[in-house]
Design goal:
Length: about 170
């Protein structure tokens, strides 16, 4: 028998049996998880952008909905129709839900900030930022969109989270 010729194997087996330990299984994470939050702080505009990315990556409409103000409006230019198209929060959530349901993967990368302005009370902000969105419907159907998102954010006071009031998609597709 090979095991008798290799005593280290017997010792390893005995240690595993005696201690009840599986040397090939990782230990359980018993931390409280408080050290690294999953979602970012939306009291910063960076946190808003990180949480949009999180919502798209994990296709999480609950997280996405918490970023939108009740008065939310989405705008984009429909070049086929030759005009701007707009819809409100309810339609945005329906469309986003459908998108999240019908794709296998979404990869959102936020690029450079082109413009940033904030009022003196820190309760209104406009951010224009580049993005790359890769939409994978299936392995043979992948769409990549590069563009700019122009977001208008508001909050009641400088210690409250930002909410997106207007999102103007400035992509050329």
């Amino acid at each position: 028998m090979k095991c008798i010729e290799q005593p280290w194997w017997i010792v390893l087996c005995l240690v595993g049996i005696i201690t009840g330990c599986n040397p090939f299984a990782p230990a359980l994470d018993e931390s409280d998880g408080a050290s690294t939050p999953i979602l970012s702080d939306t009291r910063t505009y960076e946190g808003v952008f990180e949480n949009i990315k999180y919502a798209y990556t994990f296709r999480d409409t609950v997280v996405y909905s918490q970023l939108l103000d009740n008065a939310f409006i989405f705008h984009y230019m429909d070049y086929d129709r030759g005009g701007e198209v707009m819809w409100g929060r309810e339609e945005e959530m329906r469309i986003t839900y459908e998108l999240f349901q019908h794709v296998t993967r979404l990869d959102l990368v936020w690029n450079q900030i082109v413009a940033l302005s904030i009022d003196s009370a820190a309760t209104a902000m406009n951010v224009s930022r580049g993005f790359t969105l890769t939409v994978t419907f299936n392995p043979s159907d992948v769409v990549r969109v590069d563009g700019y998102a122009n977001l208008f954010l508001t909050r009641r006071s400088s210690v409250e989270p930002w909410r997106i009031v207007r999102w103007k998609d400035e992509s050329n597709y």
